[in-house]
Amino acid sequence: MSGLIIADRQRMSEEEKKRYQAYHCGLCRALKETAGIKGQVLLSYDMTFLYILLSGLYEDEPTEQLLSCRIHPIGKHLAFSDKTADYVAEMAILLSYSSFFCDRSEASLREKRYISSLHDTVKSLVKKYPMQASACKKAVSQVLDLEKRNEENEQFAAGAVGEALGQAFVMRDDDFSRDLYDTGFYLGKFVYLMRAHLRRSTDRRLGSYNPLIIKEERDPDGYDTCIRAALKSLINESVKSFERLPVKRDTSIIRNVLVSGVWQLYDSAQEKEEKQARPVHQFFI
Predict the structure, then answer these.
(1) How does pLDDT run along the chain (285 residues), one tens digit per residue?
(2) Backbone angles phi, psi at 65, to 5 degrees
(3) Sign of the C-alpha dihedral, residues 267, 271, 273, 274?
(4) Residue 74: left (phi > 0), alpha (psi -120 to 50), or beta?
């Protein structure tokens, strides 16, 4: 996953941190039950966010468990468990499997063997969730086609990723479906653009497809202003969609992620670039 949809822990209370981690550990358990240890490899805070959102929306009060595991071998830790975690775990596998085929050219032999080991699990999920699976398949096809054509408009690939994540946010076909889809759709577009922005140097070195490289080369002076405005617009739309949902629990954690958490890597990268761009005092030359 992207590693971008994360909480800003510095702005969280101790209770919020405890609950945030409990959701994360509960998702880890669900991944193990779905696909064994190889499922746990796909654990990410990106999908922990979806677990918190859906659990709070549908008021499925999670069962509290005290668990021990390899990651936390000393003592037991709190973990939440419910059917929502099972759904999110299945979406994590489906999305990660699809994402792999978009980045297949950069995958190692070990990674290719690992993803192949998930084939049977994914095959069953495709039958269980035809809408979500169809969205993922369509996104992979579109991104690969855009890459082949070296499409310069970043909105096409961002939209494809947004559709896949948006559909994954729709756990049930009900009155909340539209706003859930929109929350995930705009968040997915945001994640694609943010990831492309952060990977510019790496993709330029590897020769990998990244439409933002062309965008920056064409307007180096206006690039930063343009990309930040685009990212702010997308995350604002995601927040608006979320705010229309009657989420009853852990809304402060969700807002923390959407308002502050998703910008952490961006701010860190900007600070690094600014330091590198500072002129060296002639005393040190």
Answers:
(1) 678 999 999 999 999 999 999 999 999 999 999 999 999 999 999 999 999 999 999 977 778 888 776 666 666 788 898 899 999 999 999 999 998 876 655 667 888 888 888 999 999 999 999 999 999 999 999 999 999 999 999 999 999 999 999 999 999 999 999 999 999 999 999 999 999 999 999 999 999 999 999 999 999 999 999 999 999 999 999 999 999 999 999 999 999 999 999 999 999 999 887 777 665 555 555
(2) -130, 150
(3) positive
(4) beta
Angle at 3 between CA 173 and CA 140, to 5 degrees: 60
- Give me the helices (H) in 199-250, please: 200-206, 211-218, 223-243
Measured CA to CA, the distance from residue 161 to residue 155 in angstroms comes to 10
| Type of residue found at 181 | Y
CA angle 171, 172, 173 (to 5 degrees): 135
Beta carbons of 148 and 208 less than 8 angstroms apart: no
Q: Is 172 left (phi over 0), alpha (psi -120 to 50) or beta?
A: beta
Phi-psi group of 207: left, alpha or beta (phi > 0 → left; psi -120 to 50 → alpha; rest → beta): left
* Residue given tokens 């859930």 in the structure block: 180
Residue 63: phi and psi, rounded to 5, are -80, 135
Q: Which of 113, 125, 118 shows the shortest CA–CA distance to 97?
A: 118
Encoded tokens for 198: 């952060």
